[in-house]
Design a protein that fits this description.
With about 250 residues, the chain is of the alpha+beta class. It folds into two domains: about 10-70, Winged helix-like DNA-binding domain superfamily/Winged helix DNA-binding domain (Arc Repressor Mutant, subunit A, Orthogonal Bundle), CATH 1.10.10; about 75-245, GAF domain (Beta-Lactamase, 2-Layer Sandwich). Helix content is about 50%, strand content about 20%. It contains nine helices and eight strands. The radius of gyration is 19 Å and the shape is globular. The relative contact order is 0.12.
Length: about 250
């Protein structure tokens, strides 16, 4: 939630609270649910919702309000993200073709991992994750990779963000897992969301620090064109290729 500041801008604070609450909810909410969750009156929240809708930050259906992709589009315009996408997308298409699986690219955003782009599998096998999808950092393969490949100071700050967001976290168990991921060069683990899928995730690292995580949700089955070990090697290679594209020439 919004931290207290000595400078007051009540309308702005309410608007940001609504955006954060909808992002964390991950589903449509009506005005009453939002006002209850934020501890504010329906009247003041409804006015904020109307303005956010007019500006294109939220949309409304019969079921309630939800975020649009406007905030994501704004973040995509940042030079660092734009350069990352320019380097990654062609390599991700090649990865999808070679592995026969979908892939996506995630970055660190506060206490969460957020997907900034994805490429669908070329055939009938594959599980695609949409841009804008987010999960707490420690609850996804991509997020754990982003945590693992950081300096001790940066990792500590990211874990503090998770705790401040109110997420339950076993820091001792997480530290052991992150050290294992760092030693192995990435993460291969069953999906925490769906059975029959193994997440393969590797860091896009610059100077030892992960700027992004490249992930393939590997769908098991007779239709898969490559096995898990081959897919892992392909993901590792693709992540390194993206990183090499981001390093300025000497």
């Amino acid at each position: 939630m919004i931290k207290q500041s000595r400078y007051k801008a009540p309308a702005l604070t309410k608007g940001l609270e609504v955006l954060e609450y909808l992002a964390q909810a991950g589903e449509e909410l009506n005005a009453g649910e939002i006002s209850t969750g934020l501890g504010r009156s329906v009247g003041e929240i409804y006015r904020v919702l109307q303005v956010l809708g007019e500006l294109g930050y939220i949309s409304r259906t019969e079921s309630g309000f939800s975020l649009t992709n406007r905030l994501l589009a704004l973040s995509m315009g940042r030079p660092a993200i734009r350069d990352l996408l320019t380097a990654a997308v062609p390599i991700m298409h090649d990865l999808a073709r070679k592995s026969g699986q979908s892939c996506h690219l995630g970055v660190h955003s506060s206490a969460e991992m957020v997907v900034i782009t994805g490429v669908e599998a070329p055939g009938f096998i594959g599980f695609a994750v949409r841009a804008g999808y987010r999960r707490p950092l420690h609850r996804s393969a991509s997020g754990r990779v982003l945590l693992a490949f950081q300096s001790a100071e940066a990792r500590r700050a990211m874990i503090d963000e998770i705790r401040e967001a109110g997420e339950p976290i076993d820091e001792h168990a997480l530290a052991i897992e992150l050290d294992t991921i760092a030693r192995d060069g990435g993460c291969v683990a069953p999906s925490p969301v769906l059975t029959g899928i193994t997440d393969i995730s590797a860091p896009v690292s610059i100077a030892g620090q992960a700027r992004a995580a490249l992930t393939v949700p590997f769908v098991h089955g007779r239709g898969a064109p490559v096995d898990l070990a081959s897919a892992r090697a392909t993901v590792w290679s693709a992540a390194m290729s993206i990183a090499n594209q981001l390093v300025p020439p000497a």
